Amino acid sequence: MNIFIANLSREVNEEALSALFSEFGQVNSARIVKDKYTGDSKGFGFVEMPHDQHAQTAITSLSNQAFFGKNLVVSKARPKTTA
Q: Are 48 and 2 in contact (CB under 8 A)?
């Protein structure tokens, strides 16, 4: 399952995000979306977990939890749409 995470602190890196979600199960990837010009975090990212049950537990447990001083917004990611 692909998980969307918003309201990330600029201090959070992909390793910290992966470590947070790995408490709930295997993490295939963790990616923070960055500005293509400055390289700064845009404040959101995605985590891919192979087991839907573990992913759902992570979403429920981490939603609105403080992480690096900010309350996370966590949900199942919507599929990409092409315009």
A: yes
Residue with structure tokens 């573990």? 54
| Residue 21 parent element (H or E) | helix 14-22
pLDDT band of 17, cuts 50, 70, 90: very high
- CA–centroid distance for 50 within its chain: 14
The pLDDT tens digits of the residues spanning 58-70 come to 999 999 999 999 9
Average pLDDT, the chain: 95
Report d(CA 69, CA 30) in Å as an integer. 20
Which whole-number Å values give the CA distances from 44 to 37, 53, in the listed order?
Answer: 16, 22
The answer to whether residue 83 scores a pLDDT higher than 70 is: no
Look up tokens 């995605």; give the residue. 46
* Distance separating alpha carbons of residues 4 and 18, to the nearest angstrom: 13
